[in-house]
Amino acid sequence: MSKPFDIALFLSGTLSGSKATQKRHLRQALTMQAAIQRRWNRDNPRTWQCKHIRWFMVYHLKDHSEATRYYYRLTALLICKRVGRNICPP
């Protein structure tokens, strides 16, 4: 059995800003990872595709406010930056 993917270690090189902002990004990245893991059995952001992020943003966050979706979008962009390819929907 393999170890679970450590999203905190994955994002540690790209996190900047205040400690509260860093904690928010990590918390939201963990939420994204858990939802995508349950839906598609992919816990590593390097294996995510645009459809995974889009599903999370559109369907998983459908009952959340615009502000919440905005902050999750920032976290998704941070993950895309760390992955090194454009997997985030426009």
Describe the structure.
- With 90 residues, this protein is mainly α.
- It has one domain (7-83).
- 62% of the residues lie in helices and 0% in strands.
- It contains 4 helices and no strands.
- It is globular.
Could you provide a short overview of the structure?
Helix content is 62%, strand content 0%.
Mass-distribution shape: globular
Number of helices, where a helix is a run of at least 4 consecutive DSSP H or I residues: 4
What is the strand content? under 5%
Structural class: mainly alpha
H/E series: HHHH
Low-confidence stretches: none
Largest sheet: none
Summarize the amount of helix as a percent range. Answer: 55-70%
Q: How many beta-strand segments?
A: 0
Radius of gyration: 12 Å
Mean pLDDT: 90
- Give the termini separation: 36 Å
Number of individual domains: 1
Name its key features:
62% helix; mainly alpha
Question: Helix and strand layout, with pairings?
Answer:
Layout (H helix, E strand, L loop, with lengths): L6 H5 L7 H22 L9 H11 L5 H18 L7
Helix pairs in contact: 2-3, 2-4
